[in-house]
Structures are given as structure tokens and as C-alpha cells.
Specification:
mainly alpha; single chain; 64 residues; 4 helices
Length: 64
Amino acid sequence: MEYSNSQIRELIEEYIHSERDRKILCLRLIDGVVFEKIAEIMEMSPRQIRTIVHKSEELLFKHI
């Protein structure tokens, strides 16, 4: 099933409770920003970003 960007954003808002993690996941899933660029924006390492994205995706995908 295909989800619109607004539907994805709603799901992220509902199930991801950390503001930082919501922003990271929106940048990745909705805006298509690469891990390295997100790391620059968030002033974190790409490895930290990958970990946050993967854990957040697991949590989010349980509900869809």
C-alpha cells in the first residue's frame, strides 16, 4: 500500500514521541535527505542518524 507524505507525517507524529527523532525521520522518509546530510543538519554522526532512523522505522512500521 502506498502512503502519501501527509499520511506518513501523521503516523510519525502519532507514534514517534521524540521531537528530534520525528524531525530526523521526516527528513529521511518524506524529504528523501541522505544520512550524511541529516547528520550535518542535526550535528550528529551519520551512524547515530542511521540508528535513529532504523529504530524509528521499526516502531512506525509495527503500526502500518
